[in-house]
Amino acid sequence: MRIKSQKDFFAGLMFTITGAAFAIGATTYTVGEGARMGPGYFPLMLGIVLGLLGAFIIFESLIVETEDGEKIGPWAWRPLGFIIGANVLFGVLLGGLPSINLPPMGMVIAIFGLTFVSALAGDEFNAKEVAILAAVLAAGSYLAFVVLLKLQFPVWPTFIAG
Fold first, then answer.
1. Percent of the chain beyond pLDDT 70?
2. 33-50 pLDDT, tens digit each
3. Tens digit of pLDDT for each residue in 105-153?
4. First and final C-alpha spacing in the chain
5. Which of residues 63, 85, 105 is at a domain's end?
6. What's the total number of domains in the chain?
7. Nearest CA among 107, 111, 110, 162 for reference residue 134
8. Is residue 84 part of a domain?
9. Do 13 and 44 sit in the same domain of this protein?
């Protein structure tokens, strides 16, 4: 059997493996039943659905003919580095880094850092658009997590908030 779409085949394989891992991991918790769900019910069902979706995508990649076989290109190292770096920067800015005496900078600064660094992963970078996006994300996150959910996040750096 010949793979007719490499992208779909490997995406389906990734979904199937991830779904199976979630489903297997969920069995270590009490699953329960539909009427009385345990803590493992949702991850088990999510893993099963993800695995089935992956199996369907794999099947489709073997059946549906594509124009050039949709070959997988080279790794996009630059975007991958910026996205991973943005997430690490978010964690460091939000919680601080005591080993180098960096205090927590708060959620607002962390969201701005995350947004600006992750925007560098794309082909185009417009600082004005990114600043607007970061402001909207910061305001929305503040409303959702601090105001509505009443979670205790450091919102501003300690040298500003006290």
1. 96
2. 778 888 888 899 999 999
3. 999 999 999 999 999 999 999 999 999 999 999 999 999 999 999 998 8
4. 65
5. 63
6. 2
7. 111
8. yes
9. yes
- Residue 18 CB neighbours (<10 A): 15
Residues 81 and 156 in one domain: yes
Between the CA of residue 87 and those of 11, 135, 139, what are the distances in Å?
23, 18, 19
Model pLDDT for residues 48-106, shown as the tens digit of each residue: 999 999 999 999 888 877 676 667 778 889 999 999 999 999 999 998 898 998 888 99
Q: What is the pLDDT of residue 146?
A: 92
51, part of any domain: yes
By residue range, what is the domain housing residue 56? 6-63
Q: Are residues 91 and 137 in the same domain?
A: yes
Q: Where are the alpha helices (DSSP H) in the chain?
A: 6-26, 41-63, 77-95, 106-119, 127-141, 158-161
- Both 93 and 127 in one domain: the answer is yes
One domain, residues 85 and 53: no
Q: Specify if 70 maps to a domain.
A: no
Q: For residue 69, count CB atoms less than 10 angstroms from its CB and return exposed for 0-12, middle for 13-18, buried for 19 or more.
A: middle
What would the two tokens of residue 106 be?
Answer: 């708060």
Residue with tokens 């489903």: 23
Give the C-alpha separation, 126 to 132, whole Å.
Answer: 10
